[in-house]
Write a structure and sequence with these properties.
Helices cover 32% and strands 29% of the residues. By secondary structure, the protein is of the alpha/beta class. α3 (101-107) crosses α7. The termini are far apart. Keywords: Acyltransferase, Transferase. Residues 36-148 form the Gcp-like domain.
Amino acid sequence: MLVLVLDSSTPAVTAALVEVTADGVTARAQRRTVDARAHGELLAPQVDAVLAEVGARPADLAAIVVGLGPGPFTGLRVGLVTAATMAQVLGVPAYGVCSLDGIGHPAAAGEPVLAASDARRREVYWAVYDGAGQRIAGPDVDTPAVAARRARDLGVTAAVGDGAHRYAEVFDLPLLAEPRYPDPTALAALAAERIRSAAPGDPLTPLYLRRPDAVAATARKPVLP
């Protein structure tokens, strides 16, 4: 089954095609551009590019997998709206996966690992994964110092992700080079059982974890003559 994978929870705008079979998940094509200000401009052309690379059409897709975040409001919304719209138009299910799982799950190698992405405002989105790649804490948003303290309490021995690299001195843990951003093959693997069983699609509820910067006015402004 040919599956489209999208993630826009980080500055890395990602579209990929994977093949899901009874034996596993195989990467077929991928486009990734790191640009925190161009999610809306980049994602659709990248979807077209990965389809063209394998000679496929949107109608060939059996499902869509999308990263649910956590991530900044504007960028994350692009991926979720794209996934939901395509799923509705094509009549295929869309499955959501925590984007941090696409970093922490493939990085785990027998010992607990901290996965972190940049949340701006000098904060990180973070989660902790055990040696088997299962999430045991998070996702949450905190200052790097708070996340580091929680990670130490859970016996974490390494850190991974762009947020971990950005605040390496604060975390004071060995850094894993990859994955720096959510890995689309890992996201698909985490949804593979749902895909194989043709489970109903998810509601694609975003993991914002905090309010957007823009807020509605709470009082009317006086009108001067």
